[in-house]
From TrEMBL:
Enzyme type, top EC level: lyase
Protein family according to the UniProt entry: Belongs to the uroporphyrinogen decarboxylase family.
Protein name per UniProt: Uroporphyrinogen decarboxylase
Gene Ontology annotations for the cellular component aspect, listed alphabetically: cytosol
Sample GO molecular function, one term: uroporphyrinogen decarboxylase activity
PROSITE patterns per UniProt: UROD_2
EC number: 4.1.1.37
Naturally occurring in which organism (per UniProt): Xylona heveae (strain CBS 132557 / TC161)
Amino acid sequence: MSPSFEPLKNDLLLRTARGEKVERAPKWVMRQAGRYLPEYHKAKGNRDFFACCRDPEVASTLTLQPIERYEGLIDAAIIFSDILVIPQAMGMLVEMVDKKGPHFPNPLKSPTDGQYQEIMDRKVDVKEELDYVYKAITLTRQKLKGRVPLLGFCGAPWTLMSYMVEGGGSKLFIQAKTWIYKYPEESKALLLKISQLCVEYLALQVLAGAQMIQVFDSWASELSPSTFKVFSLPYLRYIAANLPRRLEELGHKPVPMTIFAKGAWYALDDLCESGYDVVGLDWLQDPAAAVKIAKGRVVLQGNADPGILYGDRAAISQTVKEMVHGFGGGKKGWIANLGHGITPFVDPEQLKFYFEEIHRLTSSA
């Protein structure tokens, strides 16, 4: 039985994502709930990062912190979780190392290392393995009381595979490149398996209460235009095509879908045809140029440099003005966001001013 929730009071984001004309640009930011907030550190306490993800009460508390701090200025909540829960569900150990980030003690070394075949053969039950995410989503929806929509998300297949073979973040991506250029067929098989799990995982997030989803291809920038078309785009399309079908099988209507492929500026035209309702842009793309490429096929999301929040208020205002102008004024076809997640040590008051400027400049006639 599906959980019951209070009616949505602010559906600005969902209307925009569906291509409707709106009264002002909706806004939220990536890494909205996180370490830039003092209340985050208080609620997290001494818990490990993944322990916070696995505790629905803690995850929902962290998700709601920016909604409460910036009341009336944020138009969406995004569930506090991590893209690497999929590799964890696939049986890989992932640790969050302080000041270093995610670490896989035993990454996939080659298709013959034994672990690869084990992972390919394993029947992964994402319903059971990631039950804590769905519980956190349902609890958060209930606590939101319809204030704003709740977003779910997953990592894109190429990005997840990169982590699984590199063992963590990387500057050179030696292992990921070795896999796609040396073992292309085995790479494609792994990417397809990840894609299938992403579809089921996202569908179950929607059943639990997520009203929109986003796919994060954080390492798209590491692929050339031609390799992106082989090792990322087909799997992004797979998710976009199969998630609505899976939701219908489960008796649920499709929800708006966003793709954010960081650094894949060269693929914007392809992404506009990939089946998603919204295409997120990083700060390396010019808003007006992106609008010309998109030609109204999708809603665009983005895309201020997160580093602007370290600047003074005049710089923030100027950036917002350029965005509002470039994206056409904010009444249609644009979800205001940063071009990536909030970076450490940002003053929360600077983010508040960023939101206020978007609100001011897109609310005016």
